[in-house]
Design goal:
Number of domains: 2
CATH architecture of the largest domain: 3-Layer(aba) Sandwich
Shape: globular
Structural class: alpha/beta
Distance between the termini: 61 Å
CATH topology of the largest domain: D-Maltodextrin-Binding Protein, domain 2
CATH class of the largest domain: Alpha Beta
Bound molecules: D-malate
CATH superfamily of the largest domain: Bordetella uptake gene, domain 1
Length: 325
């Protein structure tokens, strides 16, 4: 009897401490892990929202770049971090869900092994080629790739990154073979496209937008069913002759599994308000990105989106034999 009363008292004290602790959150610096190199789309979005969270929640939200293995290195780190709200993960949803299907060492469950908080931004994927590539539209490009199997090289932010997965989907759907050249982030990958060391990329508008404006690379198509406002002259993949090539690069924020619900609520409310603010809307527009659609800004909405992307990408990886290199 005495023993069970003591257990009850300890449990009640623990619940009370967690509750009080969650209510006061945050009381110190929060580390926001970005599993790609600084300067790329995931990093840019994490810094944009991190700045807003620091202002509204009164503690610094500091981005930490833990790049490697297409995002798996940083994601593994967060999955093993204490679930106290002081380590968070900002990731691109496609590589987040694809990691364990591609890397045998990725011992985490991307859907149920994290607490989803909010989607932060969405960016279209553009099919871009080096300036002097011998094709002026998608049809010519695909015909060239078909008659030169394995010769056209494409750069990515790493094996399993969104820029890699999108091009693998393009290969599957257009039935072409291309050579993958992985980098540690989209920044260095794009540099080599601009200098002509690689032939093409399936890159996010946020990353490639400035180069498109400067005409240093050429866009052949956008992987969505509507043209973008930023580059209305770029045809959709369907208009350019490739039906069904639709890829959305979505950046989202997650916490380690078991993070108290009160902390998730504090963060999701602050992020929702930031996402609706004029300042974020303007910045996203400048960054050739958009606010998340539907209810993906909510933890429940992000959870179902993450599950849907998980099944889409694991199927594509299995059926297309996508591998890391
Ligand atoms: C990707 O998955 O390609 C990432 O968005 C790359 C990055 O953010 O640098």
């Amino acid at each position: 009897m005495l023993k069970s009363m003591r257990i009850l008292a300890i449990t009640a004290a623990a619940v009370l401490t967690t509750g009080v602790f969650a209510q006061n959150y945050p009381t110190k610096t929060v580390s926001v892990v970005v599993p790609f190199a600084a300067g790329g789309p995931t990093d840019t979005i994490a810094r944009l929202y991190g700045e807003q969270l620091s202002k509204t929640l009164g503690q610094p939200f500091i981005v930490e770049n833990v790049a490697g293995a297409g995002g798996v290195t940083g994601t593994s780190r967060v999955s093993k971090s204490p679930a106290d709200g002081y380590t968070l993960l900002v990731h691109n949803v496609a590589p987040h869900v694809a990691g364990p299907a591609l890397y045998p060492g990725a011992n985490y469950d991307p859907v149920d092994g994290f607490e989803p908080i909010a989607s932060l931004a969405e960016a279209a994927i553009y099919v871009v080629v080096r300036k002097d590539f011998p094709a002026t539209n998608l049809k010519e490009f695909l015909a060239y790739a078909k008659s030169n199997p394995g010769k056209v090289s494409f750069a990515s932010a790493g094996s399993g990154s969104a820029t890699h997965l999108a091009c693998e989907l393009l290969k599957q759907q257009a039935k072409i073979d291309m050579l993958h050249v992985p980098y540690r982030g989209t920044g260095p990958a794009l540099n080599d496209l601009v200098s002509g060391k690689v032939d093409m990329m399936c890159d996010q508008g946020l990353n490639v937008g400035a180069q498109l404006k400067a005409n240093t690379v050429r866009a052949l198509a956008i992987a969505q069913d509507v043209r973008s406002q930023a580059f209305p002259d770029v045809p959709t993949a369907r208009e350019a002759g490739l039906d069904g090539f639709v890829v959305n690069a979505s950046t989202a924020i997650y916490a380690p599994k078991g993070t108290p619900a009160a902390i998730i609520k504090t963060l999701s409310e602050a992020l929702f308000a930031a996402g609706r603010s004029e300042i974020i809307a303007q910045r996203l527009e400048q960054l050739v990105s958009e606010r998340p659609s539907g209810n993906r800004m909510s933890p429940a909405g992000l959870k179902s989106f993450t599950a849907a992307e998980h099944s889409k990408w694991t199927t594509a990886i299995k059926s297309g034999g996508i591998k890391i290199n």
